[in-house]
Each structure stands twice: as structure tokens, then as C-alpha cells.
Queue: 2 jobs
Job 1
Amino acid sequence: MFDVNIMQNKGFVIWLTGLPGAGKTTIARNLAPKLSNLGLKVELFDGDEVRKQLSPDLGFTKQDRELHAKRVVYLAKLLAKHGIISIVSLISPYRAFREFARNELKDFVEVYVNTSLDTCIKRDPKGLYKKAMNGEIKDLTGLQDIYEEPLNPEVTVHTEKESVDECSEKIIKRLKELNYI
Ligand code: ADP
């Protein structure tokens, strides 16, 4: 019998993790149209926007961060079932949580957006570090809260050495190596 699923690409999740200001959103927005141009179905889960829509009730305690991330994992899993690629840009500072997401999603490509804290503070695209230094924010990852670096990510991009395009191309190359695309 003809199996329609054969015609469909397998859904999976590209999970961008890194410090605030590392470049997760910028890379996600650059990567998404490149994948769409390959004929793939892509959905973006951008940290701030998704939080506003999905978790307006939650703050930034460890428990709240994990609850929010679990909601994202749930949605991405549903989309993957239908052959859609989710690009998630979420600080996701805890290693144990990212392992949870990996186990839950199975088809999980962890991308470490590796940018030094110094550079992130200099970039400060959302003014978060300034607010933390003024005392307006008390739980900013990197400054006041821990960030646990990935130990074995599928891809690491170095935004201080690689341009946004180079970061996206590196991710695409790895997706090909892993037979996702
Ligand atoms: P995050 O989503 O990780 O908090 P953003 O993507 O919002 O970070 O901000 C990253 C900032 O760094 C942007 O202003 C972006 O233009 C800049 N930037 C410089 N070089 C790069 C690069 N190679 N990759 C991603 N962002 C970069």
C-alpha cells in the first residue's frame, strides 16, 4: 500500500541555547527562510514572543522557566508529528532540562550559540544586562543566574568569529550530515 508519510519530511526540532544576547533569535530568523527555501515547513518559537503568548502567567524562577519550556516542547512535538521543523530559541540554561527536551522530542538538534558573556554584555540588544546591573532585574541568566554550557551539542556556532549567515550554513550542513534534510 502507498504510504503518504514517505512523501513527507520528518519533523524535528532545532533547539538554540545560549546566553541572553548570544544571537539565538537572530540566527533563528536567518535560518528559517533558508530552510523554507529548501521546501521545508518551518515554525519559529522565539523566546520572548512565545513567552508572551504561551506563558504570560510565568516568571523566571527555575520552576517557571522549566514549565514554560515544557509547553514549548509539547507544541514542538505535536508539530514534528506533522513533518514540521520547529526552531526554538530559548536561553534554556539548565542542562537537565535540555536533556529532558532531547528525550521527549527524540529528533532534537541542540545548537549551542556560543558567545562570551563580555560580548553579550556589550551587545545587550534588549537592554537586559543594563537592567540587571541597575537592579531592575534580579535573575538574569549569565549575570545573576547560572547558564550551564552544553557538553555535547550537535552544533556549536561561535558568533564572535562566524557571521549570522555562516552560523546558519553551519547548522544546515550539520542537518544534512545527520540526515534530517
Ligand atoms: P538572543 O536571542 O540570544 O538573546 P539576539 O539574537 O536577540 O540574542 O541578539 C544578538 C545580537 O548580536 C543582535 O544584535 C545581532 O545582530 C548581534 N550579532 C552579531 N553577530 C552575530 C552572529 N554572528 N550571530 C548572531 N547574532 C549576532
Job 2
Amino acid sequence: MPVYRLIEEFSSDAYKVFEYVDSIYDRIKRVEDRVKAFITIVPKEEVYSYLETLLKRGYNSGSYPKLFGVMIGVKDNISTKGIRTTCGSKMLENYIPPYDATVIEKLKSVGMVIHGKTNMDEFAMGSTTETSAFYPTRNPWNLDRVPGGSSGGSGAALAAGEASIALGSDTGGSIRNPAAYTMVYGLRPTYGLVSRYGLIAYASSMDQIGPMARNTTDLALLLTIISGHDQRDSTSLPLHSIDYLKALDELLYKEPRLRIGILKELFEGSDDGVRKVTYSCIDKICSYHECIEVSIPYTKEAVAAYYIIAMAEASSNLARFDGIRYGLKVPVEGRNWVDVYTEVRTKGFGYEVKKRIALGTYVLSMGYRDMYYIRALRFRRMLKEKLDAMFSKVDVMASPTMPIPPPRLGEFFEDPLKIYLADVSTVIASLTGYPAINIPAGWNGLPIGLQLISRPLSEPILLYISAQLEERTKLRDLIAEV
Ligand code: GLN
């Protein structure tokens, strides 16, 4: 059931929440062995007693919070007090945070329940959830396929009906990619709109937390809860909270006509099936809005710049995992620091993470810094200028979210460059900090998603088009058989 319906149900009878909790845990019991969406599942008894405490506090006597009891899957790189937070890595296998991330505090303040931490690529580095140190997650729509990544556990939990709504994080596409591959809605907010206090950092100039849901209304609801200024995150924008549901309703009422830019290179560069499905999806609203073809001629360069910057920042962010301040604990008595450090990092990090730390250190090293890192930063500025110029002509830009359908498990390992290049559409919003959404577009035997990018802080516009498309495609509230 959509979250906006659950809220209505529980507001007339708060005790119905227990039947709902049972139904989600029954579903987990039935499908989780095959899907593997979670790294940690909170025992049902704990959820029960948490809800009972809330009810005793008088939440059922009129003053009860809006999203009481709604069960949310949270990506395992977001700190949850008292619930293990591994970041998909052996390095943090036994880490139990002593505090909540700001977004978690916000979820709790409206009565939501975190019932599980979802699987992810190790330290969010990947596009398939296969680099998780624990196990890969499978796509509920086809168990031989990946669910995308790195927030693949969140997408799979939604598509398999194991959570009502979810949080992901997106550095280079990690919300939009798994949303596309699991047929759900996912939004990467404008950089600075959602606090990252308590998010385990990958590449700080691009990391963002964002909502994932099975329909646009739920997506707007969750964005409303998690967004807003936070003093504890120095990159947080000094803005008052916005009610995105209200903003969405207003736009749906006024129905403004917009200009939609069809990103030529990204459609042309996609697989045939993907192109057909996404094109016919966007076409559904082109008779109402004005659709024009636009071009950003350096999409491949954007991928290179993204990976240089992401790896450089990762090599610096991950230096803290030394076994002393953070990370795996190994015997230290009578040993020198280099030996301890080497052991911790050899055992704690997986192959992909090590590769990126090495490459990131390389692009920042003397002599190579100007050639790679500084050039990538210059490219980033130029891309932003091009995008800004484009946004004086169009309101949003459309492209396939992913240029290929969900690959088979293991397929990407045969060609590591191909996996990086598959981020061609998503990295544009990441490098510029602009908001972008994945909207389920249709089937080509497998789920296919459409991406829209818009100007900074124009999330309501993205939600508006998403709602219009959802109305036409009816691709909402879908749960796979598994
Ligand atoms: N696939 C991209 C990467 O591996 C994006 C990951 C992300 O957004 N966290 O870096």
C-alpha cells in the first residue's frame, strides 16, 4: 500500500500498524533469502516494542506524528544509533553508531520505523551492489539480474515489497541507477538540500542522500521530511523547509507548460530497447509540453572527470579507516603502526575500494595533479556553464537513466570500463550538483527508467513531470512476484 494511504489508515486506528508490521515481516520471510536486499534486519520484537512505546507516549491520542509506523529501508552508509552500519564493507562489519544521522532523526521525529539496513556496493563504489563485502543483491524482477547500485538494496527492498519506502545515497547515480533497474522512483536532490551529517563519505563534493519510493507522492512526502538546513553539515543550504507535496499539488493544479530538452547524445548512445522505451515514455507528454532536441557534446568526458574527482576524494575520505580511529580492530600490542595500518586496510577493504584509493592517490600526486585532478575540476566548471546556458532555453533535460538494461550478475566484471561508462547519464547532475529524478518508463522485458535533470532547487518541477508521467504510464506501486 502506498505510504500516503497507510498514513490515512493508521490515523483512524493506530493499532492497525501491527498488522502492517506483520505483513512486511511475512514478506521478508518469504522473499529475502532470494533477494538479499538487507545487510541487517531489525528483529520484529524490537519494532513492536518501539511502536508500543510510541503509542504509550500518547501518539494515539491526537498528537501522533504524521508517518507513525511507516517502515523504511535505510541504505547501510547512513548512521543509525544502535543499529549496525557497515557501509557494505568488512572494515565496518561490527560498527554500531553511537548517534543518528540528521535524516534518521528526522524520520524518527515523524514516527517512522527503520526496520532494516539495505545492501550496497562497498563504500557506495559501484553500480550493481555486487561489490558489497557480504553478498550481491538480486533484482526482484529477474533474479539473474543485478538491481543496480550502489543503493541496490533499497531499490530491491521496494520492488520486492520488503519496505514501504527507502533512503538511498547518490554520488554518481546511486539512487537513480537502482531506481531505474527496479522500477521505482528515485530522486537525487540539489547538492546541499538534504543534510549529510551521519552519512559515511565517499566523494564529499557530490554525495547526496535522497528518497526512493514506489510512486511520486511518496517520493515528495519523504523529500519533505528529510530536506532542510542543518547546522551540523557545512554544505547544507540555508533554506527553510518546503512542503513538496503542496508544491506538487499546486503545479498539478496550474499545469504549467514546460520546455523539455531531449538530450540527443544520451538517447543515441543507448541500447536500442532502452531508447525505444524511454523515447515513447517522454513522448507521452510532448503533446502538452514542448519537447526540443538539445545537445551536450562531451558526455564521455563527463564520466572521466567524475571518476577522477570521485576517486581523488575517496582516497582522502577513506584515509581515516586505519584501525585506530575507525575501522577493523586488529592486535596492536608490540607492533609498529605501518604493519597495523597495512593489515587493517588489506583485510578491511575489497578489491574495488583498493583500486579506487590507489587511483585517487595517483591523480592527486605531484606531477599528475595538474594533468588529471585539476583538469577534471576545470571540465566540471565548463560543464556547469554549458548546463546553465541550456537551462536558459529549457526547463528540464530528459535522457535514459541507464544506457543499458540491468545486466546479469557477474557480467560487468568481465569489462570494468563498461561499468564506468554506464554512468554516462547520471554523472552530469552529480558533477554540477543539480537535481535529477528517475521515473519508471516501461519494460523491455526488464525495467527501464527515464531521467530528468533540472535547475538547482527545482525539485517540484521534477516531481510534477514525474506525476504526469505516472498518471499516463500507470507504473506505480508495483511489487514483483519474486
Ligand atoms: N557508479 C558510480 C560509482 O561507482 C556511482 C556510485 C554512487 O553514486 N555512489 O562511483
